[in-house]
Structures are given as C-alpha cells and as structure tokens.
Amino acid sequence: MVVAETASIQAAPARGVSRDFHSFSFTGSGKEYFGIWIVNVFLTIVTLGIYSAWAKVRRNRYFYGSTVLLGRAFEYHAKGKQILIGRVIVFGYLIAYNLLLTFVPIVGIVLVLLSLFFVPWLVARGLRFNARVTSYRNVRFDFVGTTGGAFKAFILGGFLSVITLGLLTPLASRWVGRYVGSNMRFGGKAFDTNPAFGPLYRGLFLGVGLALVVALVVLAIVMGTLRMAPGLFNPPAFNPSDIQIWQWVIVVAGYLATACLYGIVALFYSAAVRNAVWRSTVFDGKHRFSSRLSRGRYTLIAISNLLATILTLGLLRPWAAVRMARYKWTLTGVTVVGAVGTLMSEIEAQSSAVGAEFMDFEGFDFGF
Amino acid sequence: MASSSTEIARGEWHPAGSSHSVPSRLVEEGGSLKALDGSSTELASGVFAAVDISDRVGAIPRRVEFADGSLFETPDNEAVDRFLKLKGRVDHIHEWERFRPRLIAVVAATMLCGIAIYRYAVPALVEVAVLVTPPIVPQIMSTSTMETMDRTVFNHTQLTDERQNRIREGFRAIVTFSNRGEGGYTLNFRKGGVIGPNAFALPDGTLVVTDELIELAGDDTEMIVGILAHEIGHVDLEHSLRQIYRAAGVAGLIMMIGGDIGSGAEDILVQGAGLLSLSYSRGAESAADRHSVELMQKAGRDPTAAARFFDLLEEKLGDHGDTSILSTHPGTPERRKAILDYAAELRAKAQ
Description:
The complex is a heterodimer. By secondary structure, chain A is α+β, with helices and mostly antiparallel strands. In chain A, about 65% of the residues lie in helices and about 10% in strands. Chain A has 12 helices and 10 strands. In chain A, strands 1-2-3-4-5-6-7-8-9-10 form a 10-stranded antiparallel beta barrel, surrounded by 6 helices. In chain A, helix 6 (about 145-165) packs antiparallel against helix 7. Chain B contains 11 helices and 11 strands. In chain B, helix 5 (about 160-175) crosses helix 7, helix 7 crosses helix 9 and helix 9 (about 265-300) packs across helix 11. Chain B is α+β, with helices and mostly antiparallel strands. In chain B, about 35% of the residues are buried. The interface between A and B is large, with 71 and 55 residues.
C-alpha cells in the first residue's frame, strides 16, 4: 500500500492529474440525538448548569462523529473539565467587569478598552482550542490566528458593518472568512480562504430584497384586515385618543415584523457567506472545497425548524438540528487533486509537529 | 498466540499521530488489550486499565487509545459495550440516552425541573439579586434614562407655579409615609410630547408626571396625588430592578440549556421571556395600586382617588379594555374595582 502511494507521488506530475470530487455526508439521526439531547438538558438543569460543559462534549462528539468525509468521521476530543475551566474564567471576568463598573464607574473606559483586547484574545484562543480538539483520520487540526487578526475580523469588521448600516457587512464577512479559514492547519498543511465580494453582496442584497417583498405582502394583509376593523381607519369615528390603545399593538407588531425580516436577511445572507467562504477555501494549495447551499431552501429549513421547535416546546429541536446538519453537509464537498492516499501520507509526515501541547490549556469555546 | 485470546471487535488501527490505517482486530489476551493486524502481528498492546476507551455517544465510531498514542477505531459499539459489561463497566449516561420507553421519564423529569426553576428558583434568585444590588446601580440607570428622555421626548413643563405647588404639597404629605421617606424621591414636571398623559417612576426615586396628565385631571389634585402614590409604590417595592433581574434570570435559564437549543430558537425564547415578564408587570401594577391606597390612607387623604383616574380613562379615552396577554397593565375597570375593594377593606380594618 505504502509502495503504491509513493509511486503515485512520482507519477502524478507527469501525467494528467486526477481530480476527484468527494461529498461530505451526515449520518446522525434525530431519534438517536433526541436521547443524547434530553439527557444533556436534564443533567444541565439538575447540576445548575455545571454539566453544560460535558453536555457540549457529548453533543459535539455526536455531531463531529456523524460528519463523514471519504468514509471517515471527524472527531471531537475536548474534555468537559477543560470547557468548564474556560467558562469559569469567562464568567469570572464578566462578574469582575460588572462589579468594577458598578462600584468604580470611572474605570468604565479602561474596562471597555481592556475588553477590546480581551474579547479578540478569547476568540483567538477559542478558535485554537476548537481546532486542536478536532481530528480527522487521527490527525489534529490547528489554528494559528493572532489576537490582532481577531480584533480586525470581529471587532473592527463588526464596527464598520454597524456604522455603515450593514453596507460593509460583506467586508466584515470576508475578514472573518479569511481570518478563520487561512489560519486553519491540518497535519501541518495550510488552508487558504479568500471569499470574493460578488457573491457576498449578491447574497446581502437578495436577502434584503426578499425581506422587502415579504414585508410588502404582510403589510398588504395587515392593512386589508385593519380596513375591516371599524373605527381605526374610518374617518368620522376616528378619535386620536384611540392611538393610545392601538399604540401598544402597533409597537408589538412592528417589533415582531422587524425581528422576522431581520431573521430572513440574516439567514439568507449566512447561506451566501457559507457558500462564498467554502468555495474559496483551498487546502494545501490545490484541494478545493465546495458548498452548494440554496439560499432560499436554507432559509426555509431554518425557519421551519424554528417553528417546529417552538411549537413542540423544544422537543423537536434534536430533529431540527440533525435536519440542518444533514442539509449543510450533503451539499459540502472537496475536490481532491491526485490520490487521496498520497494526500494523507504527506499529511502524516508533518503531523507530529502538532500535538504535544494541545491539552494544557483552558477550553474557551465559542460557537462559530 | 497460544494463550487464550478473545476477539472483541474489528476495526482500523492508526499508528500514533498518523492518518494511515490498517484493518485490525481488538483482542483480549492474558489480561491485556491488543490490536492485531490480518496476520495476527501485534500492533499495540496495553493492560486494560492503561487503555482509554471512549464513552459511547450514539452510533459514532468508538476509540480505543493505547498508551503509545496509537488508536484502534471501530463502528462496532455493541461489541465494545458487551466487553466492557463483562469488565463491570456500564455507561449509565448512554443507557439513559437510548431511545426506549424510559426516556419518557427523562423527558417528564426535564420538563418538571424546567417548570420548577421558572416558578421557584428564578424568583428566589431575583430576591437575592435585589438585596445585594448597591444603590448606585438604580442611580446610574435612572440618571441615564432621564437624560435620554429629556433629550428626546420631553419639554419644559408649562404648568403654573401655583399648580405645581399644590401637587407638591400633596406629594410631600404622602411621601413621608413611604419606605424611603421624603429624601428618597424627587418629583419632576415635564411636557410629555409623544408619550401623552402619563406618570412614571425611575428606580432611584425620580418621579415624572406630564402636563398632559395634569390637564386630564382638571381640578382633581387629589387624583394626581393618588397616581403619584402609585408610582412611589413601584419604587418602594423595587419593581424595576426585579423586572430586570427576572428577565436576566429567564434569559440565563434559557442560555444555560441554550447550547442545545440553537441560536435562532434561543433569540425567540429570550423575546418570549420578555412577553412573559409582561404578565409579571401586571402583578406589579396591582401591587403599586394597593400601595397607593395604603399611602393615601396613612396620610389621611382619599384612598380611592386613584380609582377616579380609571373613571377618567374610561370616560375620556373610551378604554374598556380587558386584560390580555399582551398588556403591561391590567384592564382599567378591573383595576378600579380592585382599588375600591382594597380601600373598603382597609377602612373596615381600621374601625
């Protein structure tokens, strides 16, 4: 076997290089995850939240272990204790932050500046932790992003996005994609990501357009209904003081509508971002990833999942989570240039560089 | 090879840190676990206690890690479980996770726990939080709220000094009977703008009453005093702080389980908690109404004055609305009746 692989390394450059597309798959089932999930929730409640660290480990082990590429699943190796320590540290910082802000309000500015450093540091550490506790074919991932990079991608990007009322959101997404994607390593080899602006802006504007269409339809229905209601839009009977009573209704309806529209744009856009980021991701300079989510279908799945979860008081959440994971991974793949065996044997040679130090720190974990 | 060996499961073996894999068998031989390849050559071995077998999670591949860092992996979870059971090791968490009738017991217990926390633990934590909150917190909250309101909606009052003084006089009469005494409150007059006829209290004891409300009251100063007594009630009973902590507590409860909820659902649930806190706010309104009756009674003024305000609301604004799940305040007729009843009750007690 090893001999054959060595031969193919030499043969590959000479002849036409083979390119094979391999799709991810997700083998988890809603039924199986239901048991894991409900026991997680139960133990988290009775231990007043402490078990949530171990719950996260079991959940991630299930989801990583059900995500399969080339017949092999990913693995999640974090230990509950590591994650608990990370959470205690973050929780302690938040308490100290709030106490200081309460008793010595004047240091507020200093604290905000400190947070500008602390949050990116946490994000970088969290990404590194998550990478290092993830493995595929017995080889660990690694993340080499710096605190400064996290500051640019998450804080500066978020700030620019907010002050331009979302117009620079694709820039922020691009920075995040580059930061996370290009600092990822697997077996000593690098990933590289450089999402283009085109698909990001298309996703954003299509999302906003879709939300506006939905808004107009809803508005038409609401206006039509209100026309039926006597009093409010009937000029002779219209009494300005009615506004007092209706104000509240309008505020609530407006608030809910805004939240829904924001949700549609966010979902639609996040599918576009995922596609753009994955499609521009290259491993080891030649193996290209792909993601073919339909933005509309992704949004519909997310919304119907949410409705199903709420209507069943959360009991369908495991089914929804598995359904979404299956949709996402089925449409994700990688085109391997050359033989997979060649790729894997090259990875092995450098993998010993990673490894020794990965278990000695706290598990700051963030859900990216 | 001659010694008795039992095969546990078939799978793949990886050398330490390598992506290479070899089809292999996991066997137990003379108290040790061994990974053997097709020709029964030993790939790795170790005593049972020194080998790390991962806990079972669903049907994902099982990992058996040897001390030298090499790894045996198998999808045959059942076989590994059978072996561990012989060794006296049962994974209780996995046993409970299996999709069996007894999982219904877990679901029921989880729901009961959730309800119990919502009903008992959150309110208890809210009380503790209110007790340990230093006074500077409500002060900061109130100062910034007042500044924002002054900048955005309010204008200077247009009431005459005489009118203001009459109200202040009544206010002083009742405020001495409040929990915080006269120094604990400041009364402000503002032109309400878009918020119209209204009165409200900030948690540090800043009270605001709008010109519009006073105009609505006409000559009935006593009624204004009754309304102010109601607002004092909110501050005395620390309603704002309780409501904030309650919303934070429920959000925390959801986030605690949250890792397993999903971000979209989490947002909606946190918003839903906001809606639920409205029903709590209705309870707070009734409590403040009763506080108003008590204060007015103690000050020797008309305890039912605030009820007249509800007459006024019904008359002038046509507000006959009943309580609904979306209201911050209970229905107007209901509140008026509650005030009259409570005043009668207090009077009966006094006699």
